[in-house]
């Protein structure tokens, strides 16, 4: 039997599960994995990190989708943001900057969603785990990008 507000909680739990699914399955690294940008030689390490992040997002998204189905929900990651179609042919350092902002924004969104809590402990735990993953990924990319820019400043040929 559901108590007052339990239906709202179930809806918000399901909404957050699907939002986490969207944040991972439809992330910029996930898109770039499918629509590979041009990668000049000096960006190989950065590209490999982006691919690793895309793999982490695919794994997390698969677990979220399985969890939603087990709970009787319908996984709905939605579409990739349309703006991504205009970005896949731009310089990888530009895309890494966009990814870092996306990851940090997703982490802040998850922190806010869990902050007001009243959520099922399982959704809170998953949201916190994803928040930490996003922050770790952003830091990893930022370090690679900073090192790349320190060692080899952009040349006119690399302008995107």
- The separation of the N and C termini measures 58 Å
Order of helices and strands: HHHHH
Q: Provide the number of structural domains.
A: 1
The CATH superfamily bears the name Ferritin, core subunit, four-helix bundle
Question: Might you state the CATH topology name?
Answer: Ferritin
Beta content: under 5%
Report the major sheet: none
Mean pLDDT figure:
86
What features would you describe in this structure?
There is one protein chain. This protein is 68% helix and 0% strand. The longest helix has 31 residues, at 121-151. It is mainly α. The chain is built from 5 helices and no strands. Helix 2 (28-34) packs across helix 3, helix 3 (44-70) runs antiparallel to helix 5 (121-151) and helix 4 runs antiparallel to helix 5. It has a single domain, classed as Ferritin (Up-down Bundle). The chain is globular. Residues 1-11 and 156-160 have low confidence and may be disordered.
Write the layout of secondary structure elements.
Elements: H1 6-25, H2 28-34, H3 44-70, H4 92-115, H5 121-151
Helix pairs in contact: 1-3, 2-3, 3-5, 4-5
Give short descriptive properties of this protein:
single chain; 160 residues; mainly alpha; Ferritin; 5 helices; 68% helix; globular; disordered N terminus; disordered C terminus
What's the short story on this structure?
The chain is mainly α and 160 residues long. The chain has one domain (8-151): Ferritin, CATH 1.20.1260.10.
